[in-house]
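Reviewer comment 2.1 asked that we show a complete input and output for one of the modelled complexes. We chose the uracil case, as it is the one discussed in the main text.
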Amino acid sequence: MRLDRFVSETTELTRSLAKRAIMREDVWVNGKPEKRAARHLQADDQVTLNGQPLSLVGLRYVMLHKPVGVECTARRALYPRTVDLIDLPLAERLNPVGRLDVETSGLILMTDDGQWLHRVTSPKKAHPKVYLATLARPLAGDDAQAAIDAFALGVELESDEEPTRPATLELIDEHHARLTLVEGRYHQVRRMFAAIGNHVETLHRASIGPLALGELAEGRWRELTEQEVASF
Ligand code: URA
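Response of the prediction step:
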């Protein structure tokens, strides 16, 4: 790989800023300044920027227990972002796999592997996602059964052409529901409960496909194991 590309891939620098750093002799190869941006690196070349060793990071896969008040976005935002909670080098390169609303807590996956991201989110794969919702209005008796049946059939959501895909609603008690979806539309859980005249007060995602938060505390993250990555 060319030196300027290597520097930009291992830092936050764009290719042209990497070239400038090379011209300024901020970049050294094997202990000596290197001004040739086009120099081809060998596997064992040691590169530093201002004395800091640079190395290519492999593809990374992370699960985060997102707290309420954190935004799933790559751009600068009003709220703290999911990447701000991940203290890995170049965390900015990790993309959220799907989205959770700012007001929703729970499991979010993050990766810099575009193909894997696509496999997890692809509607064709239909990985189930489990949400725990607190409902403003009690849901019990015949109304509960009607909601279970309506969600199993699919509900019409305002401004969506297609009804929702069959979803499984379980009532833990009259204010607490577990909802399993196989798709991920904008504000889907909140809109589904609104469609049956209820209101979601709190929302938490417990799992995506085979991956659940387990004991991971709110605001904490961990890298996925190889088996977990391969499970999608
Ligand atoms: N459905 C919602 O309404 N919000 C989320 O964050 C996720 C699913």
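The longest helix spans residues 141-153. We note this here for comparison with the apo prediction described in Section 3.2.
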